[in-house]
Amino acid sequence: MTFFNNIKEIKYEGKDSKNPFSYRYYSPNEVILGKSMREHLRFALAYWHTMTADGSDPFGVGTYKRNWFGRTTKETTKNRADAFFEILSKMNVDFFCFHDVDIADQGNSLQEFFDNLDEMTDIIKDKMKEYDKKLLWNTANMFTHPRYVNGAATSNNADVFAYAAAQVKKGIDISKKLNGDNYVFWGGREGYESLINTNYGLELDNMARFFHMAIDYSDKIGHKVPFLIEPKPKEPMTHQYDFDAATALSFINKYDLQDRFKLNIEGNHASLAGHTFEHELRVARENNALGSIDANHAECQLGWDTDEFPYDIFHITLAMYEILENDGLNPGGINFDAKLRRTSTSPDDIFLGHISGIDTFARSLRAAAKIKEDNFLENILDKRYESYDSGIGKSIVEGKESLESLTKYALEHDQINVESNHLEYIKARINDYLV
């Protein structure tokens, strides 16, 4: 059964194409800086926004019209899988991501949920083979059900901790079964609503215990999959324990998780934390912890996690520059954790939204590659920090100076000339690379 009979395979047709169902900038096999665009970008589709979203928001019910709803829940979940792989195939996208609850009904017990997952992952495994698609990462939804109202690994209730552990064990089993490239932890409610009634230290210690259990189990079953933490500062909890990249890295290092844990950085979450996307990528990269990304855009006028498809080429170019400096994301990738607007009600918009996001990243890759080839930003940094290449600066970097020696130097060199950064010119030049 097919669900998008009016949609043909999306192909690269060049920037002058007027066909809305074509790539104007993404040419998968085109080689840039020694790798194909397909290798650089490793695009993935998110099962939740693509298949289970209904267009609802905090102020209104769903608006999307979908043709995969069956007579029963099980029929619907199977139809969704068929439709999803049809989308992946026609979009020419290699990877996908999902939460456990996206692909299977939770039923009336944990065992029933596991049975449903077994059945659906059998189907998905066959689909992966049929369409030659790969699992970028999977994760456990430990935030939607009322049992997780106070968190999962950080819950005050030990029974909830145990239930969450069972859910993650199953998720790691699924990752091995489907040969997943990564496993993600997004702490949807791992944080506090109010500090007044929170044992902050115990909750963080328990979350670390939880992650070490995941490491131990994945090693035990011979599936040493990379684990990724996805930072987010707020929403749904007042304060999330993985507030931003720096906070998550502090946690990883404190609890000796750095050998197995990296970060999955999301654009919208960076905005919520008061950062740019490229800032969060830089923090992760400089700490050898950039694992994968969730590609989306924040509508900052609204102030919540809007998950728009990315379209800001300036900032995505700077993000792609960080990825190039990281020598890519493999085994991570670029997952479109992006949803259609509530007013984009047609099934065709699933394709149009993803085409827009894919072409945004393809354009940004091209621009970032030119910036890198020209050493444009590298030359700016070299010039700006050249005082550390010789003289007293070089001596400071080499650890040869002390407060006493620097005081003596400063007394003899107290007439200091601080040069202009020419920041306006730099930003204007970056715009030139985008055209």
Describe the overall structure.
The protein is α/β, with parallel strands linked by helices. The chain folds into 2 domains: 343 residues, TIM Barrel (Alpha-Beta Barrel); 58 residues, no CATH class. The chain is built from 16 helices and 12 strands. Strand 11, helix 11 and strand 12 form a beta-alpha-beta unit. Helix 3 packs parallel to helix 5 and helix 11 crosses helix 12. Homotetramer. Its cofactor is Mg(2+).
List keywords for this structure.
16 helices; 435 residues; 8-stranded parallel barrel; 12 strands; globular; TIM Barrel; alpha/beta
What is shown here, in short?
With 435 residues, this protein is an alpha/beta fold.
Summarize the topology:
Layout: E1 31-32, E2 35-36, H1 37-41, E3 43-46, H2 47-52, H3 73-91, E4 95-99, H4 100-103, H5 110-131, E5 134-139, H6 158-177, E6 182-185, E7 191-192, H7 200-220, E8 227-229, E9 239-240, H8 245-254, E10 261-266, H9 267-272, H10 277-286, E11 290-294, H11 313-325, E12 334-336, H12 348-373, H13 376-384, H14 391-397, H15 403-412, H16 423-434
Helix pairs in contact: 3-5, 5-6, 6-7, 10-11, 11-12
Sheet with most strands: strand arrangement: 3-4-5-6-8-10-11-12
Query: Can you give the mean pLDDT?
Result: 97
Intertermini distance = 43 Å
- Principal-axes geometry comes out as globular
CATH topology of the largest domain: TIM Barrel
> Mind describing the biggest β-sheet?
8 strands, parallel, barrel
Q: What would CATH call the architecture of the largest domain?
A: Alpha-Beta Barrel
Strand segment count = 12
Helix content: 40-55%
Looking at CATH, the homologous superfamily of the largest domain is: Divalent-metal-dependent TIM barrel enzymes
What fraction of the residues are assigned to beta strands by DSSP? 5-15%
Q: SS-based structural class?
A: alpha/beta
Domains (count): 2
